[in-house]
């Protein structure tokens, strides 16, 4: 068995047999009886992604054959399993607060150095509504990811920084998510709770 990349765990019909060599061109050899087998190879990680490949093979009697597998990235089943265990008791919903009904003047009310898009000043009236007291947290987002409702697993660092940063997850506000990601989270949250959450305008 040859894998690209190397150093992958090798499973035959669900039983681990060893690891593929890390050096290119080398093979992992084993003897199998004649028959059909499912070969799976995986490089696991502590994060949400792992590398994986599988192939159904037939081994004929007294034959020598090379099986090559190119690993592709996929969601880590072991990582998802840990997250599901963590959130097995339910969805961590947002804590809501009530904003009372009222009116306010929108625009450049001072009349000084006003921009065109700040005119004319006008009255805006709002009905009472509820809004989340805190930002959505990594913990809440991870529950969505674990349940398959969110495709994106955001990292807790700076995308544009030259130095690798990590600010922590848990109850910290989730970062590195797009508007589309947020819509996916809301659809999942509404489905799980039967409520009608949305982004504030």
Strand-residue proportion: 25-35%
Name the assembly state: single chain
Kindly report the spatial arrangement of strands forming the biggest sheet. Answer: 3-2-4-5-7
Helix % is: 10-25%
What is the straight-line distance between the termini?
55 Å
Secondary-structure element sequence? EEEEEEEHEEEEHH
Which stretches are poorly predicted, pLDDT < 50 over at least 5 residues?
none
Chain-averaged pLDDT: 90
Instruction: Give the count of helical stretches.
Output: 3
- Broad structural category: alpha+beta
Record field, number of beta strands: 11
Largest sheet: 5 strands, antiparallel
Q: How would you describe what is shown here?
A:
- This protein has a five-stranded antiparallel beta sheet with strand order 3-2-4-5-7.
- The longest helix is centred in the last third of the chain and has 15 residues, at 179-193.
- 17% of the residues lie in helices and 28% in strands.
- By secondary structure, it is α+β, with helices and mostly antiparallel strands.
- It has helices spanning 77-86, 138-146, 179-193; strands at residues 2-4, 9-12, 15-19, 35-43, 49-59, 68-70, 72-75, 96-99, 102-106, 122-126, 129-132.
- Strand 2 (9-12) and strand 3 (15-19) form a beta hairpin.
- The protein starts with a strand and ends in an 8-residue tail after the last helix.
- It has three helices and eleven strands.
């Amino acid at each position: 068995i040859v894998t690209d990349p190397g150093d992958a765990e090798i499973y035959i019909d669900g039983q681990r047999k060893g690891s593929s060599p890390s050096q290119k061109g080398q093979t992992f050899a084993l003897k199998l009886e004649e028959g059909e087998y499912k070969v799976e190879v995986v490089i696991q990680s502590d994060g949400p992604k792992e590398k994986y490949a599988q192939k159904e093979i037939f081994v004929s009697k007294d034959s020598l054959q090379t099986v090559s597998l190119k690993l592709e990235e996929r969601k880590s089943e072991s990582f998802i399993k840990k997250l599901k265990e963590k959130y097995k008791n339910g969805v961590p919903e947002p804590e809501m607060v009530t904003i009372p009904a009222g009116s306010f003047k929108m625009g450049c009310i001072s009349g000084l150095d006003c921009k065109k898009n700040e005119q004319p000043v006008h009255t805006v009236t709002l009905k009472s509504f509820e809004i989340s007291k805190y930002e959505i947290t990594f913990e809440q987002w991870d529950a969505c990811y674990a349940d398959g409702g969110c495709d994106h697993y955001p990292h807790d660092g700076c995308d544009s920084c030259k130095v690798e940063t990590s600010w922590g997850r848990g109850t910290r506000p989730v970062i590195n998510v797009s508007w589309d990601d947020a819509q996916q989270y809301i659809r999942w949250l509404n489905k799980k709770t039967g409520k009608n959450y949305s982004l504030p305008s």
